[in-house]
Structure formats: structure tokens, C-alpha cells
UniProtKB/TrEMBL annotation:
Its EC number is 3.2.1.25. Keywords: Glycosidase, Hydrolase. GO terms for molecular function: beta-mannosidase activity. This is beta-mannosidase. It catalyses: Hydrolysis of terminal, non-reducing beta-D-mannose residues in beta-D-mannosides. PANTHER family: BETA-MANNOSIDASE (PTHR43730:SF1). Residues 11-185 form the Beta-mannosidase-like galactose-binding domain. GO terms for biological process: carbohydrate metabolic process; glycoprotein catabolic process. It comes from Tulasnella calospora MUT 4182. Residues 194-280 form the Glycoside hydrolase family 2 immunoglobulin-like beta-sandwich domain.
Amino acid sequence: MPSILPINQNWSFTQVGGGEANADGEWIPVSLFPTSTHAELVKLKKIPDPFVGLHEWDVQWLGEAVWGFKTTFDVTEKELAEPNVDLVFEGLDTNAVVELNGHKLAETNNMFVSYRLPAKEHLKVGTNDLLLTFPSSYLIGKELEAAHGKGALWNGDSSRLHVRTAQYRYGWDWGPVLLTTGPWKPVYLEAYDVRIDDLRVSTKVDESLAVVIDVTIALSSEVSAKASLVLKDASGKALNTADITISKGQGSASLESKAGELELWWPVGYGKQVLYTVDVQ
């Protein structure tokens, strides 16, 4: 039976090697999760509020430091009995090294994507250790810029163009320079046999205003299966259905509606912005 275990408890963080945030080897419990270095240190009054006055310049050292976040979590025999057990990170800001029970699972470099890491072979029944180490994305950007050259831009440090992170972190006309770091979105363990790996929905409206909705589905393994497709309106009412036959992990289906059966989405001032839901199980 598939299960999801949120990993949102027992987290602590440190400035690796010690520094202005903490002594070498000292780990500080976080106040919430997900989180970031700036959010935690402001609450602890270890740094001033960077949104007050010119305090942003008093916290620039955070962006050049190395940070660690760690936790422990328990895994049951039932969870480990599933064919697949993945560690899922919905968002890591930005460069990070992921270690599970002392084994390096991945190095990440993109704040905007999620990472799904197969973890079963390194998990154990009972308590497991998870460590995230965040090197300075700012300094990594500087190294990449030195290797590949400067890009054209109108504001902020030009090295930001080499880093897949929120560009406003480097300062904008409406915000301060705050080079944040940390697990900024949820982390969880997912145990399963087969899962929906990808679901794509595309719509076509012809000149008569008839609508065709094309749906493609991909599973995590090359199995044969059946799936049901339901189109729902904003109230949850089912408007159209179809069956999907999946072969070798791939399947597709289409839903057709005559002109006037579905309300179209219009730009502001021209009509309503009607949304529909496609549900696949």
C-alpha cells in the first residue's frame, strides 16, 4: 500500500565550521519547517531584521557561508517492504549535497525543481539520518562566471545569471539583497509499487469552438494497467469520462466536447476565466 511520510520534525541547522551564527559543531533547532537561514537567525536575534533600515548589508555574510540542515526520521518494515522508496525534496535553495545514513544520494543545483531520489538501499528499519549541506550558491556563481564569462543584465550581481535560483535574491529595485539558503519546500519519504510519473493535459479549440482534451500518462515502471479519466467543472460535477489503457507504462485518451458544452477562458474584460479539473486515477 503506497504511503507518504512527511519529514518535517527534529530538524536543526548550523553554519558549517562555526562562525557568526554558532560555534563549530553546534546545531540549532529550527522553529519551523520548511525554512531558511535568514528566517531562523532573525527569530533567534542572531541577525538584525534585514527589512529594517540598511540592515541588509549586515547580513551579506550569510550568502558566502556553508550551511547544514539535519534531521532523523523513523522507517517501518512495512514501508521498506514496498518495491520503491523515494526521498522527495520539493525545493532546495539552491546548491545542496544530500546524504542519507552517510551515503551521498545527490548534488542539486536548481531551486525551481523538485528532486526524487531512490533511497531504499540506504534506508534501514528504525532511525535514519538525513543531512543536507548547502555550499554558497553565490560563490559557485562567481566560479561559473569566471569559467564561462559575464552575461548582459541591468541590475544586481552578474554572477546570478549562472545560478538557477530566484534572481531577486541578488537585489532588485523593489527588494534587498538576501542570499537565502535552506530546504524551502516540503521533504517527504514515499513508498510505493507503481506511481503516476507524468501527466500531461493539452486542449485544442477549433474554429467552431469545439474542444478536444488530450491526456497522456506515464507510470514509474513499464507495467500494464487501467486508469479512469474524469473532466469536472468548478463545483466538482463530472462532465465527461474516459478509460485509459496503459501498456508498458504509457497511455493516452481524449475527451471531445461540442461547441457550447464547455465555457471557454477569456482575457479580462472579454468574459469569464472558467477553469476545469482533469482527474486521473
